[in-house]
Amino acid sequence: METQVEKDRLERNKRNVMAFYAMAFNEGRPEEAVERYVGAHYIQHNPTVGDGTGPFIAYFKAAAGQWPGMRVDFVHAIAEGDLVMVHCRQHWPGDRDYAAMDLFRLDDDGKLVEHWDVLQPVPEHSANDNTMF
Questions:
Q1: Which of 32, 60, 90, 110 could disulfide-link to 98, CB 3.0 to 4.6 Å?
Q2: Is 74 domain-assigned?
């Protein structure tokens, strides 16, 4: 059974992940997001973004210039242990929307230290009436 301390830690971790992602993605402030929410060493598993905080910042600065108004909308957030998974819709103006699953590992202080993601374009037509969200 989870203690209140553990529940509070899981909720803090979910808040930190969503605040980090919203600040970097929606607000176009990746430097501040890294400064506020990322630990001493950041491991990146997305093959299109370099490892560490510098490449993360560069990626989001370039993306904000190429897709002004890009945003992420959170649909679900799940925390277990030191992991937080967010299911979200990524909107890239002039491109398309993507369904994303982002997984973050956090340290004991609630700082993000590792990231994985899986992206799938939201199709114009679906073989069923269910949404991806």
A1: 90
A2: yes
